[in-house]
Amino acid sequence: MQAPSTATAAQKGLWEKLDASRLPAHVAIIMDGNGRWAKKRGLSRAKGHKAGVQAIRNALDTVLELGIGTITLFAFSTENWTRPPLEVSVLMTLLRQFMRIELARLMDKGIRMRALGDISLLPKPIQEGIHHVESETSENSQLQFNVALNYGGRKEILQATRSLLARHLHPDELTERVFEQHLYTSGIPDPDLLIRTSGEQRISNFLLWQMAYTELYFTDVLWPDFDSTEMLTALLDFQGRVRRYGGIDGN
Ligand code: IPE
Ligand code: IPE
Ligand code: MG
After folding, report:
1. Tell me, what's the pLDDT at 250?
2. Ligand 2 center to residue 31 CA distance, Å?
3. How far is CA 175 from CA 88, 181, 206, 213, 215, in A?
4. How far is the CA of 76 from the centre of ligand 1 (A)?
5. Which CATH architecture group holds 23-154+192-239?
6. Is the minimum distance from the CB of 36 to ligand 1 under 6 angstroms?
7. Average of per-residue pLDDT across 21-26
């Protein structure tokens, strides 16, 4: 692929190796390692989360330049409420600021945002901020940006099941297609590639249903250090994978 003029020499080499016809349609990322990034520098965890926000901007810019259609970022899990109240409050403040400050950039770049998760449990002003950004960006079509907030894969599956039970669906009518329509991700294709930063090799309750055949990529890089070079490296690795879906090579 042709590198943008802003690419460094090293990035140019990576761009040239990428095959535009084999890019993932949907990249999902578990943005992990903000706390360790801060600790290494003798900074507060809050500073790590702040640095993580800049890495989000970089990731959005890179996938936009590449023409990837969908990106989903895991920002806050249903289990993250167990962190100390001060840290939860820092994350909520950053989230609120993000919704306020980023709207103009999302509009400028044609990015459509959608929140995945039970946002009804977030503080009211944040819920309002999210709904505002979702509705303002709803006609944008350059990139679908999903942000998983108070998201848990098990909770999502339970919630879908509850909504199906409430409809008194006949068991024979329940297909994978129907079930998917009741997930937070309804209408969004499954991720082709999952990236997790910080060296942890686990899913942590992210997109459990949707990742049945997703390619997994783990890197030791901490989220605030995950730049365009790291994204291109992950994508090149992805292009070396053979996806069989239970079949055999060449099919
Ligand atoms: C990821 O970084 C951000 C969120 C979970 C909100 P962490 O805060 O988990 O950073 P580490 O894993 O403690 O380094
Ligand atoms: C996963 O990271 C959740 C997010 C990135 C939002 P965690 O840091 O919460 O995951 P564990 O606790 O290491 O599994
Ligand atoms: Mg973590």
Report:
1. 63
2. 8
3. 38, 10, 22, 18, 24
4. 9
5. 3-Layer(aba) Sandwich (3.40)
6. yes
7. 98
